[in-house]
## 1
Amino acid sequence: MVSQASRKNLLKVRVMDFITSTAVLPLLLGCLGIFGLVQLLQWIRMKAYLRKAVVVITGATSGLGKECAKVFYAAGAKLVLCGRNGEALEELTRELTTSSATKVQTHKPYTVTFDLEDPGAIVAAAAEILQCFGHVDILVNNAGISYRGAIMDTTLDVDKRVMETNYFGPVALTKALLPSMIRRRQGHVVAVSSVQGKISVPFRSAYAASKHATQAFFDCLRAEMEQYEIEVTVISPGYIHTNLSLNAITADGSRYGVMDKTTAQGRSPVEVAQNVLAAVGKKKKDVILADLLPSLAIYLRTLAPGLFFSLMASRARKERKAKNS
Ligand SMILES: NC(=O)c1ccc[n+]([C@@H]2O[C@H](COP(=O)([O-])OP(=O)(O)OC[C@H]3O[C@@H](n4cnc5c(N)ncnc54)[C@H](OP(=O)(O)O)[C@@H]3O)[C@@H](O)[C@H]2O)c1
């Protein structure tokens, strides 16, 4: 009787014989070589695309925007850093220009200060942005604000504020910069959305709604801009360890001021910024940067909506109970 171990060994020997005695080995090596070559070409194209590109980043004073500024700067991009806090933008510019951790030629960034809640300021800011380097290659709509609250307690003003910052502001800035991109038949618009732009979580209504609207608008834009060769990338991260929950507004418009456990345990903004750089460099259309569970939840929402809704209702019950206890 042949033992199980020797049967396994025999199988291994036969498999190895098959691989080495036929064309399988050269074929495997050839595939690996082609794969490596494609990756290398992609990498070279990405580097060339980002080097000297004029990149506008909103919300550059903090979190993901700040880290994006660092990675795009190191890639050789010509930056226009935007935010509400001029001093913080200047401080970041100093930090970037005194760092020496890059081999490519770098460029001193410009800063433009404006509030996305102010439509008039956005039009003026767009003109100022265009004056910096004469055009814009890549617009990264990153700035955003989060929200925590129950729908029934939340004033309509709070819903509007979140929509102004996360949706109408980026839409207005994009519309103000698009004519120049269309004239050049060149440009790339990036929207930093969220997993909550694909699924809605209880007690985040205004935020999830603003990010769903963002996803919808920029998906339409992608289709409409194809004729001008303008790229559109929507990026949907899961939790990132930034000040987003601290800066979130509550049902009455006051600052939430709490570092949520989910946010604290989120991905590092440095890692997410590198993912953003790669997604933009590869001109990806729609990217989810999340762990397995949130990614699965997105599919569950489409494939088994009933189950998804039950899970969200149970989450709402639990959160309400925790708040009342
Ligand atoms: N952190 C997460 O877990 C997470 C997950 C998914 C998606 N995101 C998205 O990632 C993006 C960046 O957020 P973050 O996590 O880096 O949060 P953050 O640290 O709070 O940074 C938010 C940035 O947006 C700017 N901003 C807020 N309101 C603005 C306004 N009215 N006008 C102009 N700028 C404004 C802030 O500028 P000031 O310094 O002036 O306040 C700040 O630079 C947001 O779109 C957010 O929705 C975050």
## 2
Amino acid sequence: MSVVTIQIGQYGNQIGHEFFSTLAKELFCESENCNDNKNKDTENKTAQNIKLNQNRILKDSFEEDGLDIFFQNSAKNRNSYVARCVLIDTEAKVVDRVLSSSLSSISVSSDMLNKTWSYNKKFKISHKYGSGNNWAQGFYSFGAKVVDSLDELIRHQVEKCDRLGGFLSMMSLAGGTGSGLGSYLIRHLREYYDKSAIISQVIWPYRSGEIAVQSYNSILSLAHIYEAVDSIVAFSNDGMQKTCQLQLGLTKVSLSDINRLISMNLVHAFLPSFTDGLIGSYDCLGDYINHLTPHPDLKMTSLMTSPMVSDLIRPFTVYSWASTLKELGRLYNLQATPGNQFDPEWQLKYDGTLNNSKAFAHILINRGFECSLSNNHNTNSHNKYNSKRNNNNNKVAVKNEFLKLKSSYPIYQPNGFLFKHHQRPIFNQHMSSLLAYNDVNQMYIVDEALEKTCKLFENRTYVHQYERHGCAVDDFVDSILMVQQLLSNYARL
Ligand SMILES: Nc1nc2c(ncn2[C@@H]2O[C@H](COP(=O)(O)OP(=O)(O)OP(=O)(O)O)[C@@H](O)[C@H]2O)c(=O)[nH]1
Ligand SMILES: [Mg+2]
């Protein structure tokens, strides 16, 4: 099941590049963590060899599957991979930079096995000038202009997939191209690929106004993509900045730091993982959508990962499932509880306004040694290896922390908490956990953007700039109503 990624606008292209680089680093690398030497002394040589072979098979299929989802093997060189991706921006600068940096990312180190990745230059569309942070310019002026060429490129990428697992689009909500042209394209995609999965990864702007009309753009794009996509995976620049400070200990946070963190979350979420007791091929977007956003009214999701440690202290960090899951629970509760530290003003403003005590669904993914909850379901090769490796202490720790995490947050639907795992460690960490959640937490950002939009719109501030590109006052009214409905859907949880 392969996924075609579509990078739109500055954010879309920058995060897309970081995402593919993180994937490549992970999948090209002979992870030393895969070769578990820890129990050397207690096991005889034959057992060790069996284990090493099992690890190798497991690792190979993980890497093969992971690569096949997001990359195509180059016909000329089997060590070189081409991202299954279409790149679009209305100005050439960012796309060109991203294209050239992927071409120069040729690895020479032995642990990367001399594998390389790049974009295919033919799959880019760019123009001279951007959309000037104007959603209407991206949607109305550029949308119709570029949609046919885009269609063609996307169709070509789809034809290169043995089986299409869906589309992953990446864009900001606040700019003009990503939000405007991106919304146009996503609606168009839905018309042509009505049965395919579409996940849109978006970034909320910094709250303290980078762009005067950012709330307009955010509300217009959210309203225009909501129906067309299956899930929205959203991060906010403020939230990620705080996470960089809290988890990575950074004092000065750049957009690159934020992008690196977002990419790690996405890679954790979409690389292969298994559900106990389920046999079958892995469908990264489908599995996410089926569990987290099966309801058409509730599609807002986000991700968090633990442990997130800086490269500097990673080699000196001692990992355990108990501490990893405990940390995840702590971070989640920090974010979920009114009075969270991610945004202190939220407490003052929203305490009690929204019913922020409920989630619709969660997915927990554990990656690394002895990560499974059970050893009873030998239904696929992964579990078979895993069960042999499970040591009781770790299993108990995983189970205890898992149950705590599960019960710390009431979930609306029965069986709303899905547990997934894969024994292959990632990010050079023996163990790591990701929580994907569909809950009311993000609603404070939506609510705030809506409030700002309504304030501006009351006096028709800046509206003429949108009308110039064919955006009617009714577009604003419909979008505001749509987002109000979205808020009330979550408030009912
Ligand atoms: N995290 C992160 N945010 C970014 C990045 N680039 C832009 N943004 C955010 O995206 C918003 C602006 O959107 P852009 O993606 O720059 O706009 P665009 O889609 O290129 O549209 P135009 O430039 O108006 O044509 C702001 O909220 C920025 O903070 C990035 O690399 N990382
Ligand atoms: Mg731009």
## 3
Amino acid sequence: MPKDRLKIEKLESENLSIENLDLTVGETIDETADWEPLGPTPYPGLTDLRDWDLKLMERYKPQYYPACSQCCFCGFGVCDLSDGKEGACGLRLHDQVARKNFMRATWGVSAHTAHARDVVDDAIEKFGPNVSLNMGDYVDVEAPNIRLVCGMKPETLADLRTVLEYVEEEIVQEVDALHTGQEGEYIDFESKALNAGMLDHVGMEVADIAQIAAYDMPKGDPDAPLVETGMGSVDKGKPNILVYGHNVVGAEDIMRYAEENGLWDEIEVSGLCCTVLDMTRIDQHPKIVGSLASALKFIRSGVADVIVTDEQCVRADTYREAKEVGSKVIATSTKICYGLPDRTDDPVDEIVEDMVENGQDGVLITDLEKVGEVSVKVAQEISDKRENVRAIPSQDELKEILEKCIVCGSCDRSCPNDLPIKEAMEEAKEGNLEKLADLFMNHCIGCGRCDEACPNDVEIMRAMEKAAEKDVKEENFKVRVGRGPVRDTEIRDVGAPIVQGEIPGVVAMVGCSNYPDAEESFREPLYRAARELAKRNYIVTLTGCHAIDVAYFENEDGESIYEEFSGAFKARGVLNCGSCVSNSHITGAAIKIANIFARMGLRGNYKEISDYILNRVGAVGISWGAMSQKAVSIANGVQRLGIPVVLGPRSSLYGRALMGDRDKPELWKTKNKRNLDEEFTIAPAPEHLVQYAESPEELMVKSVKLCIRPADTEAGRQIKLSNYIDLYNKYFNEKYPPDLYMFVRREQDVPMKHRKDVMEMLEEDDRWEKGKYGGSQPTLLDEKEIEEGLGKVQ
Ligand code: SF4
Ligand code: SF4
């Protein structure tokens, strides 16, 4: 539980001299604070919301598809868990799969929370503890996740330390539960994973509101500026510093150094993944090279004179790869040190000299101000000297590379996207580089496995990059800077249309960029889905890799998706919320709909708010690429709030779904929140809480279906069914989806254009029964939970 903490490094006054005081006093839940009454679950511990999780899992049963049937977590094993066998500790296979999901979620929440700790501590060191968490004129509910989970309203950076202490303590308890001989039942591993996910959204919110406040990032600005993205956006004529990772605090020092020394015309700062997304929220000079999929491609291009790494989603071989092309590496996070010497306490000039003159290829510097100066100076001094480094091969070198290829096909077999590399190499040997270039630009996710697999050490990626040299130069698109939170005023405007179903849904596209291949390009399905849904009046919200990758396309008028659609949280809006930690604004928006639109108290009122979201807010999460562990914890947090998630096929390795069973009416029995004596059966919506999609078409159809909610108005249900029918028809070439009978409560639910046909079809269908599904104010809560909650029945 949180405590008040007073830390004073040094204080001298007439009567008092204090040095290194670190004082912790009491617990700080102020039940009398007048901003809102306190709900039943402030600062929940491991099991305080377990009953809510069990209710969710009663309806949405965990399903497991193990990728591996062994456990090798401890020295009692390796244990074979196949065919119903138990491990040495008594764990069964499905328990182990649930445990792995939980374990991944703990890694994810730890990554974001440790990141948040760095941001808050760094911001307090730079700007002091009293920086106000003012999110701008249009945002009063500045921290919906923190208010909901912790029951506190943070006002300054210092308040965020209290929140972090709570989350950090809970993470320790969670990790403890993973130990051999601790938790043993799948259902409780699941509950703990959902708990980790919930904490993750708190941790992410801490990180993002701290950096928004400290660095004056956009505060819910729908018209945030557009910036350049793509490998071609980088000016290769200037000394280049590439920042790489997810934590902007060190990169901010580089930008500050460039600004204070008037160097923006003399150096080029570019970046990969979320760090650069967040940099552009502070200053628009840096260029976004791309997402995770561009990392190895760009590093191997040798364009970067200096690579500054921070944390998360950074390739383990970054230092080794950088050395190959003569780029210098500065590691800045204690979490990624690469075995490099710690030069944090050395003078700047000595470090620069060693890196420029004395062959030091990489250093660890955790003093971020020093990183700013060292990185710029090293880049400036070595840039000219590196002109002879030709990371991209010459024509002659390309010929030599191609000649080594014995056309064995090992590369094809190692490629996760089954790309026809051998065929492209064969054609390239004949002088036609087109296929190789196309693979590089549109289909290769930059994993490097083909190079590793080649028995003849053919540098396949270098060959591809040379073949695509001209296309790379032209890879330059527009992405809107991350806007941060959704404004309270936007929630007021869209609350009713979302809850009543007239805006058919809020779609959150979140995840990593190692997508399965697709006909035109591996990124295209994501763009197609975002555009299709936006055109159909859905609100599309994006963060991280997904936010970057949808920008790689232009419409008929040459506009990127961010130019074609508004950046506002409204129908047809396409919002880049920011980096991974900005995901908290998407869950925050769902929470704010319950709080601002439905006037439901949110302070420590987790179950009631989640129950509202599950039953009334048509929202769905999409992750098309493979998910990192952070994405697993993000998704678990989304699920606990009652928002379903559709995962792309790459995530099937995680082997877990939460599935409803439409054919079991008892699972869909619910009470009327207004009159608990009344019980009714709802249409099975949302049908699942976690499910997979094998194709982009399935992804879209499943996503629109999962936006259906039991409390939709008839007009709203008509709009949602209209989208479901249209997309099903468009992608599966059948006039009507076979499960339409589940979602038609009465004739008025059917879109006018289809009403006659659909009603005729339903009248002949034994499974459909007029009035079978119905009721209003559905709830999963019991009388006591409703009494304890803060909600008004709408
Ligand atoms: S694995 Fe190497 S040698 Fe074999 S086809 Fe691929 S590039 Fe050629
Ligand atoms: S680097 Fe590209 S081509 Fe090579 S294996 Fe990975 S995805 Fe396939």
